[in-house]
Structure formats: structure tokens, C-alpha cells
Amino acid sequence: MSIPASITAERPRARAPSRLGYPLERWRRFRRHRGAVAGLLLLLVLSGLAVAAPLLTRRDPEGQALAQALAPISRAHPLGTDHLGRDMLARLLYGGRLSLLIGVLAVGLGLAVGVPLGAVSGFRGGMTDLVIQRFTDILLSFPGFLLALSLVSVLGVGLQNVVIAVGVGAIPSFVRLVRGSVLSIREEAYVEAAAAIGQRQYVVVFRHVLPNAIAPVIVQATLSLGGAILVAAGLGFLGLGVQPPTAEWGTMLGEGRQYIFRAPSLTTYPGLAIFLAVLAFNLFGDGLRDALDPRMPTR
Amino acid sequence: MTRFRWYLAQRLGAAALTLLGVSFIVFLMVRVLPGDPARVIAGVLASEEEVGRIRSQLELDRPLLVQYGIFLGRLAHGSLGVSARTSEPVVREVLGRLPKTIELALASSALATVAGIAAGVIAAAFPYSAFDYLLSLLTLSGVSMPVYWLGLVLIIVFAIDLNWLPAAGAEEAVSIVLPAPTLGAFSLALVARMTRSSVLEVLGQDYVRTARAKGLAERAVLWRHALGNALVPIITAAGLQFGTLLGGAVLTESVFGWPGLGLLLVDSIFARDYPVVQGIVLTFSSLFILTNLLVDLLYAYVDPRIHYG
Fold this sequence. Notes:
The complex is a heterodimer.
Chain A: H1 5-8, H2 23-32, H3 34-51, H4 53-56, H5 88-124, H6 126-140, H7 146-155, H8 159-185, H9 189-196, H10 201-209, H11 214-238, H12 249-256, H13 265-292
Chain B: H1 3-31, H2 37-42, H3 48-58, H4 64-76, H5 90-125, H6 130-144, H7 147-161, H8 179-203, H9 206-213, H10 218-256, H11 261-270, H12 274-302
């Protein structure tokens, strides 16, 4: 049998979309979203300040000078000092490093556990799916802040435990999301084709299915970062997060709270910092969603 | 069996299973404590007899599943053990504080629902107007605002600078005026956002054009026809927020010294009073699961278009 000419003939060269579609088109769509651009800029500024902290201030964020406690704004202390005479600017900058880092690590943990679980759940189906779904149901039945709080009450306070406590809370959304994507992608012809030519199941999942489910995962990860920072700072605020004297936005807010009558700025600066960081991630995430996956429902 | 009954049975079964799973996690909380759980619960200063009493109370020398069986058995009899701090039954401590938390959550929920719907409808009536932009700015701020900071800002402005309202406690009736919007801000933003988009969607439909064509006042079109048809999903979303508000109350109560379950939880975590921590976590999660179940079922019952499953 001869092969029809239409298949063998050279076809017009179209640039194949990468795994994220046409990057330039995505960027254009993102750029049109003014809020998203503002979010991205805010994000770059905040992370730039955090990274460049040692260049921007020579003060030690933990260096106490009790004689200068609660000093007002001055040249020596551009944002004043706290109740132990520590430089507020230095604490905010170094605190930002930690707060952003906790957010990134916690969401990283959520991704590392949630994505494979979701993929397995969607691809295997049956009993495996049922067990994983019940497990996420259970994680989701600790409302809001309660899961992280319960976890630190058992694990104890400190940086590592805060990352775990916040990260576990990020797992269910990734499981659900990836499972849903895998369920729909599983039916696509190219997945069937991959299975038909005898590729192993996990190769099919990791080479063909997951890369095509990646756009919503990126969006969800961005939005989760804002939430993770909020929860981690909330733990710090209660005194159950990163422990003093280490500078972290939530911990600073919790410490400053006792001086709210005498020095409201002790709570204003870290609170504003948390707010701006979460706002930036939310704006950026909304824009990414519109750019990467217009079919996703807006919140 | 009708489809609704089948759906009901399915949802009840799933909720029961989830509750069982939550109870197992809560049970495990104490068993995975580092070192000797009985010693940790009793505290460093407790006598050997005290530690022994707690060990036998928790049956820590029995196999894990047997321990869980005993835990469930006691739970079925309404017992959550006794507080390590006060030696009072945990159930009594929890029930003593629960009404305050429910009061706060109800006030926040009512505020979020009423104000959220009103703001959303007005924004939908004048899309892309100055009010609409202002609202989208406010809703975005609402979902990005740390509740604990919002609470502190409200205290600084209304309790310290203006001296209008009490900064903390729950002694006076006006004490709830600051905590309620603090806790409700996030839900308010969500409800407003959702109302705006669903009312806008409904406004584009044929029967709205018909209503306008027959000469109805714009106000009647908007509030009766458009909102009326968009209301079910909005109320559902607001209802689902109620459980979240209960859990979110922990931070708000802590900021305002509101004597509810959340404040007791934080105090108990610091005091390592694990029986009380267990009791509160279990109470919050069960309430969360049950309110969500109730809202889902009501939604399925009210809306004939729902896809069961």
C-alpha cells in the first residue's frame, strides 16, 4: 500500500507551541493585565529588597541598643527602632528574607507532595484514588488556620516546623488540581498513543500528562504563596512561629503588639510588609491565570 | 430511591468517613509527641503519680488501634478527657467558650453577607464605574490583608486615637464592633466579588431584557430579577465561609482578647494542655464539616439544576 502524498509531503512549518503555549502571546496577554504587571513589579521590588538587605543597611537586625529603644525616625534609623533599640529598617529587610523564604519553602513542600499524589490519584483511579481523596478531604476539614496551628502544637515552634506546618496545608489544593487535569488529559489521543506504543505508565504520566497540566499548577502555586506567607506570619504573630530575636514579619508584629499604645509604628511596618507581599502574589497570580489558562474560573 | 436521597446518603457517608479520619488525626496528635506523651501532658513539675494517672487514662501501654478504639468509645459517651491545667472535663471547658466564638462568627458572617451582596450588586449595576474600581481595589485588599494586622489597625484608629470603642475583651455590647469586621473582611471581599460577577452574568440574560422591555424600574430589575436569580450560589458561598470563619476566629480572638474557643486554643497550646487542644481542634473541624455538609445539601435541595455527585 502506498502512503498518501498528503502525509509525506512537506507541511508548512509552524512553530510548535512550547509546554506553556506560545510564550510571546502569553506575555502579551499578561502585560495587558495592569494589576498583574503591578503585582510583578511589587514582587520584584520586595524580593530585591530582601536579597539586597546586607547592601541596603549595615545595621545588625538583632543588635540591641536599649538606650535607643523606641527611637523615632532619624538619619541613623530611617524607620526608627523597636522596644529593644533594634533598627526597624534592618529588621524589616532581613525579616522579609525569612518571610518570603518560608512561603517559598512551604509551597515547595506542598508541590513536592501534592503534585505526585494528584497525578497518581488521577491516573490510577480506583482504590488508590479513593484513599488519596479521603486523605485530602481530611486535610481540608481543618478550617483555615487550624491545620497549621495543630501541627505546630505537636511539632513545636521554629523555622523548620513552621515550613512543614504551612506546607502540609498547601498539599490538598495541588492534589485536587493535578488530579482534575490528569483525569481530562488522560483521555487525550496523544496519551492513548503513548500507551499504545508500549511506554510504561509512569513514563506516560511524567513525560506526557504532567507537563500538560503544568499551567494551572503554576498559577495555583503563585496564589498559594500569598496564603502561605499569611499563615506563617500568623503563627509568628501568636508566638508560635519563628522565635525571637530572629526577625520575621509575623514575629515582629506579635512583639510590637505590646507597644501598640506607645509606638504603633512597630506594628504598622511589618503589617504593611505582609499585606504588600500577599497583595503582590495575588495580583501576579490573577494575571498569570488570565495569561496561561483563560479557561480557569476567576475567583 | 430518588436521586436526591442517593446523593444525601453519599454525602452523609463521606462526611462520616471524614469525621472518623479527623478523629484519628486528633487522636494521633498526642501519641506522636516526642518523648513520653504522659510526661509531656502532665508537665515538667508533675509528680510520678500524676504522670502514671495520665498514662493509664490514655492507656498508652496498649496497642495503638486499641487506644484509638478506647478514645472513640469515650468520645461516643461525650468525654474528651480532663484538662491538664484545671482538671475540669474538656467538654465543659469547650462548651463554656463555644458560644462566644459562634456569636463572633455569626456577626462576621452576617456582616460579610449583607455588605458583600450590597456592594457586589451596586458594582454590577455600574460596571467599570469609579465605584466598581474602588470595590475591586477593596476586595483585593480584603483577601490580601492579614486579619491580625487589620485588627491592630482598627484598635489603633478606633480604640486608641479616637477612643470610641473598647480595644479588647467582651464585657460590653459594643465590644463586638471591632472584631466582627476584622474577622469578616476576607469573606466580605469574596462575597462581593462573587455577587458582582454572578449578577453581571444574569444581567446579560434574555429574561432581564424582557423585564426591562416591559417597563420595570431598573431598581426592580436589579434587586428582584437579577439578584433573585443569582442569590442561591452567593448564599451557598457565604454559608461555606461560615466554617472558615470559625477557624479564622483564632487569630481575631487573640488580637482582641475575645474570650472564645480560639483564644483558649492558643492559651492551651502554650500551656501544653493537650487534652484541651485536642478537644478544640476536634470541635472546630466537626463544626466545619457539618456546616459545609448542611450548606451543600441545602444547595442541592434548592437548586433543581444541580448535578449530584
